[in-house]
Every structure is written in C-alpha cells, then in structure tokens.
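does this look right to u?? xanthosine-5'-monophosphate version
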Amino acid sequence: MAKLMLALDVLDENKALKIIEEVNDYIDAVKIGYPLVLACGLDVIKKIKDICDKEVIADFKVADIPSTNEKIAKITLKYADGIIVHGFVGEDSVKAVKDVAKNLNKKVIMVTEMSHPGALKFIQPIAEELAEMAKKLEVDAIVVPSTRPQRLKRLKNIANLPIITPGVGAQGGKIEDILNELGEDDYVIVGRAIYQAEDPKNAAKKFKEQIKNI
Ligand code: XMP
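got this back:
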C-alpha cells in the first residue's frame, strides 16, 4: 500500500500542530515548506515530530550552486528527515545535497516534472532527462505529478525509483487515476484538501482509505 504525506502549508504554528494531532492516525509522513518555516522557523519540525513521530520532509526545492546547496542541506537536515531539490540546476548541485544527506543518513528527493499548468513550458520538456539523472545519482525518490497520470507512469518507469506525487485534491488530481502506478514505497501528497477541510481528520481518513483500496 502506498503512503499518505500531508503537505502542511499553513502559516500558523498552533494551527499546524493542531492539524497534526487531528490527522496523526491517517498520515504516514509530513511535508513542510517555505510557508510554514518562514512563518514559524525550522524549530517547528521538532514540534511536529514530538507530536506525531513521523518522517518530516522539507520541500525547499533547493536550486542553487553546489556550495550554497550544501549549506542549505546542512542546516535543513539537522531538523528534517529529507529535503526536496530541483534537478534542473545540474548534477553537481544535486550531488552536493546528496553528499550531506548521505553523511547524516537522510533522504534527498528530486523534482522531475511539476504538477501545475506552468510546468508544461519549461520543465516538462526536460523531465525525462531529469528522471534519468535522478536514477544515475541514486537519489532516494523523485517528485512526479498526479495531475498527469501518464507522465507519472513514464517518469517513474525511467527513474525506477520511489515517487512522491502532489496534485491530488485541490489541483484536480484523483487518487483513482494513479492508484495502479503506486507501490508501497510511494507517497501521495495531499495538502489543501486536508488542512482546509472542515474536518481535516475525516478528510485524511478518506484519502487513506482510498489509497488502501488498491
Ligand atoms: P496541495 O494543497 O495542492 O499541495 O495538495 C501540494 C503540495 O505539494 C507541493 N507541490 C509540489 N512540489 N513538485 C514539488 O516538488 C511539484 O510538482 C509540486 N506541486 C505541488 C506544493 O508546494 C504543496 O506543498
């Protein structure tokens, strides 16, 4: 069975921790990004882990030169279990993060194709090469769009790596359209459709049940 990763893009620490308490039984991992960390600081990761003891992935889409990537990874991975990086900046930039992560026994997850409409112009044309690069660099997983199930399948096949896939819920992606492609090492990412729901616990429960019905 694939796993459910909550994208916790709220701007208030109390709200973030309350949601974690509510959905804890139904999620397998948490993805935090700039919205929460810029609002509350990296310490929020420790507070999340104190409540739910689940893997926390920092979605910072790191995209700089190797030496700067290295610094970002060193700080982030003191707190988080994994970090998301962009691949289009090149192998050396991704490798800088990978070296830090390897030393700390943490994960590096690389973006291939993004889920939003704007990704079609610049990222989609190079996404297959990025998936090949991810395979060569042996990153821990790739990010692929659930808004485009055929692309998800194609990129997963090329990289032959676990996937984490955003786009279900608010962006219009549907779990039933991607279920056949998902394995037990893969994560479906859901954000707004859970944390903006009237009842986040129930929303998370429903997504978890849908994932179970493979
Ligand atoms: P929603 O609210 O749309 O949240 O369920 C989705 C989460 O995933 C992030 N996101 C992406 N991250 N590649 C990524 O690395 C993507 O293509 C992508 N699309 C969405 C988004 O920032 C939010 O946290």
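Residues 91-104 form the longest helix (14 residues). idk if thats expected tbh
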